[in-house]
C-alpha cells in the first residue's frame, strides 16, 4: 500500500524533458492556488476524480483535495525514434519522424492511458510501418504528404479515447540501403541521359521540320513569283498586240482616207514602187541570185503594172 501510495502521489509526466520546463511541477495543496495559463490541474477528492482547475485563482480543501496530474494544453512535439519498415517492393527503409500533439481532454489524458507518450509513439510507429507497406519505394518519396496525412488520420482514430489530438506528422529522414541508393543514383543518371537524348532528338526533328518548312515556303513564294511574272508577261504581250493592232488599224484608216482624196492612187503607186525597188536591193545584198523583171528599164511601166 505504501508503494502504491507513493506511485500515485508522484505520477509520471508524459511530456519529454525539453517540455517539462514549460509545465509546472506537481504543486501541493495550499488552499489558494494560481493555475498558469494553458495548463490543467486534475484534482482528486479522497482518491476520486473531483474536478479540473482552470487557469487563474482556485480554492481547494486541505487534506481532502489533492492535485494528481498536471497537463499542458500547449502543442507538444514528440520525436518518433528511427525504425525499420519494408516497402511494397521489399526494400527495407529506416524512417524517423516528428509528431505534433495537443491535449483536448485533460481527464481522458490522465485516466485513459497509463503512458500517453509511449502509447502515441508506438501507435505512430506501427501506423507508419503499415502505410509504408502499401507503397513502393518510388511512391514513398513522391507521396510523403499523403503518407503523413494517412498516419495522422490513423492516430486520431485511436487517440480519441485518450483525449489527445494529433495535429500533424512529418517524416524527417528516409534512409535506404547503400546498394539501393547506388541503384537509385544509376536510375537517376539513366533518366537524365534519356531526357537529354529525347531533347536532342526533338531538337533535330524540330530543326528538320523548320528546314523543310523553309524550303516549302521558298518554293511556294518562287512559284507565286513565277506565276505573277508569267501573268505580267502575258498581260504585256497582250497589251503589245493590242497596241500593234490599234496602230495598224489606225494606219489602215489613215491610208484609206488618203486614197479617197485627189491623186491618192498616184501616191499609193509611188509608195509601192519604192517598196518594190527596196525589196530588190535587199535581195541583192542577201543572195548571189537576183530575180529581175523583164522590163527593168521601164520604170514607168513597172509603176503602171503595180497600179
From TrEMBL:
Keywords: Mitochondrion. One of its GO terms (cellular component) is mitochondrial inner membrane. SMART domains: PHB (SM00244). It is found in: Mitochondrion. Its main location: mitochondrion. Residues 30-188 form the Band domain. Signal peptide: none annotated. Pfam families: Band_7, Band_7_C. The keyword Mitochondrion applies. SUPFAM superfamilies: Band 7/SPFH domain. One of its GO terms (biological process) is mitochondrion organization. It comes from the Eukaryota. InterPro entries: Band7/mec-2_domain, Band_7, Band_7/SPFH_dom_sf, STML2-like_C, Stomatin_HflK_fam. Gene3D superfamilies: Band 7 domain. Belongs to the band 7/mec-2 family. This is Band 7 domain-containing protein. It comes from Gouania willdenowi (Blunt-snouted clingfish).
Amino acid at each position: 500500500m505504501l508503494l502504491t501510495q507513493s506511485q500515485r502521489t508522484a505520477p509520471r509526466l508524459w511530456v519529454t524533458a525539453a517540455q517539462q520546463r514549460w509545465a509546472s511541477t506537481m504543486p501541493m495543496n495550499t488552499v489558494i492556488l494560481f493555475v498558469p495559463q494553458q495548463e490543467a490541474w486534475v484534482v482528486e477528492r479522497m482518491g476520486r476524480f473531483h474536478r479540473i482547475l482552470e487557469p487563474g485563482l482556485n480554492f481547494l480543501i486541505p487534506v481532502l483535495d489533492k492535485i494528481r496530474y498536471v497537463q499542458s494544453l500547449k502543442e507538444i512535439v514528440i520525436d518518433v525514434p528511427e525504425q525499420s519498415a519494408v516497402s511494397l517492393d521489399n526494400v527495407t527503409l529506416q524512417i524517423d519522424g516528428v509528431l505534433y500533439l495537443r491535449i483536448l481532454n485533460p481527464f481522458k489524458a490522465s485516466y485513459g492511458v497509463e503512458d500517453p507518450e509511449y502509447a502515441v509513439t508506438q501507435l505512430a510507429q506501427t501506423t507508419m510501418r503499415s502505410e509504408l507497406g502499401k507503397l513502393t519505394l518510388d511512391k514513398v518519396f513522391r507521396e510523403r504528404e499523403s503518407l503523413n496525412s494517412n498516419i495522422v488520420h490513423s492516430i486520431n482514430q485511436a487517440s480519441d479515447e485518450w483525449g489527445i489530438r494529433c495535429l500533424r506528422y512529418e517524416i524527417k529522414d528516409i534512409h535506404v540501403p547503400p546498394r539501393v541508393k547506388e541503384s537509385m543514383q544509376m536510375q537517376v543518371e539513366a533518366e537524365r541521359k534519356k531526357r537529354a537524348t529525347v531533347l536532342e532528338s526533338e531538337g533535330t526533328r524540330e530543326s528538320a521540320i523548320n528546314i523543310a518548312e523553309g524550303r516549302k515556303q521558298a518554293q511556294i513564294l518562287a512559284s507565286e513569283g513565277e506565276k505573277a511574272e508569267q501573268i505580267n508577261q502575258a498581260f504585256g504581250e497582250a497589251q503589245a498586240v493590242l497596241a500593234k493592232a490599234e496602230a495598224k488599224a489606225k494606219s489602215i484608216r489613215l491610208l484609206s482616207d488618203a486614197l479617197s482624196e485627189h491623186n491618192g492612187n498616184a501616191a499609193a503607186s509611188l509608195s509601192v514602187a519604192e517598196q518594190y525597188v527596196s525589196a530588190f536591193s535587199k535581195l541583192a545584198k542577201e543572195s548571189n541570185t537576183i530575180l529581175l523583171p523583164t522590163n527593168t528599164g521601164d520604170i514607168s511601166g513597172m509603176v503602171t503594172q503595180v497600179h
